[in-house]
Amino acid sequence: MAILPILVAPHPVLKQKCEPVETVDDAIRTLLDNMLETMYDAPGIGLAAPQVGVSKRILVVDCAPRGADPQPMKLINPEIVTQSDALSTYEEGCLSFPEQYAEVQRPATVTVRYLDENGTQQTIEADGLLATCIQHEIDHLDGVVFVDHISSLKRGMIMRKLQKQTKLRSKEGRAAAAE
Hints:
Elements: H1 26-41, E1 46-48, E2 58-61, E3 73-83, E4 87-94, E5 97-107, E6 109-115, E7 121-127, H2 128-141, H3 152-178
Antiparallel strand pairs: 1-2, 2-3, 3-6, 4-5, 6-7
C-alpha cells in the first residue's frame, strides 16, 4: 500500500464531476487500499478519489470512534437513493482544506447504494456522523466541496486563509531547500 498526495483547494480536479467505475478490478481495489492508508495517515474520516487526483466515483470512510476498532468502508459509484427531510448540522473539515472548518447543514439520514470492492451492489442506511461524512465525500465526486454549502463571506474567508497557508508552506519549502 502507498500513501498518496492529497490535492489542496483550489486545485481544479476538486471541482470536476467524476466518471463512474466501469469494472471493479485489482487496480480499483489497490486504489481503495491506498486511499484508506492515505486517509488514516492524514488523519481523516473520509477521502474521495478526486482528492488524490483520480477522477473516478470512489470514496472511503471510517467513522469509528477514536480508540475503537477501525470500521473502513469502501464505496464505488455511490448514489444517495433517499434522504431525510430532517437536517443535522456538523462542523466539517476536509483534507483538501487543511485546518479549515465550518458548520454545514445536511440531511440527517441517507440511504446509499454502491458497489463494494468485489463489485457487489450494497445498500446502507446512515445517520449521524456517518451520514454527514458519506454526503461530504459524494459531494467531492460531483465537484462540490464543503465550502460550497456555506455563505460566500465565510467561503471567502476560508479561501484567503488557505492561500496564506499555501504561500507560507511554499516559502518554508524554498527556505528548507536552500539550506
